[in-house]
Specification:
alpha+beta, four-stranded antiparallel sheet, about 40% helix, rod-shaped
Amino acid sequence: MSFRVDRKNIDRYARELLLFNERVAKETTAKALNRTAKGAELLAKRSLRKEMTIRNKWSVGSIKSTRTPLGRPIDKQFVLVGSLQPYLAKQESGGVLSRTPQGRRITTPKGSREGATAFPRKKVATGRSAPRSIKLGKNPKYGRVKKRGLKNKMAVQHARKRGRKHVYMELRNGRKGIFRVGKQSVVMVHRIMNRQVTLKPRPWFEPAIDTARKAAPSAFRLELQKAIDSSGIFR
């Protein structure tokens, strides 16, 4: 028994496969990587908005992805996805916020003008209550005054006399912070905390990356099919 093999198509496909590898393959994989990275970036931003209360633009805006050049060899292609803000890494994996000499400033709901009971707070302090706008002068000399309540009363009177809108005070219950001084009211707008704070893990990045990783083969198949269709090979 004998077999006859027509190598015409085999030879053509071999030539086209080599041509695809030389001219198209690295561009195809690069496009698939870039598509996957962008998808991971968008998923991470969506996850952050879902898992946390966002009070600013820079947290979500800090999540970025890179692109790999289309002409880079396949074995050297790579992309990066992540946030440029270290505090988001703390939120992802949990950790400890250590004590600082100046203490940690936490804006109160009244500081963000959301009322006294807003929880969680959804806005940042703006206008006169924004940290960069606050200028604290020195509190008066208390002399022999030892009572905390009387010291705070003197500090408020001192601030009003000099036209200052904010004053730093420590309360009798141990709380301390920056207060907005009005004509008839005194309101804490930023609380100052010196104690160590422990953060529980709140994964927002890893779930997004897992989803993007699972979708990566589909992205590669899509780019591969587009490359084959546009190049006219394997027909």
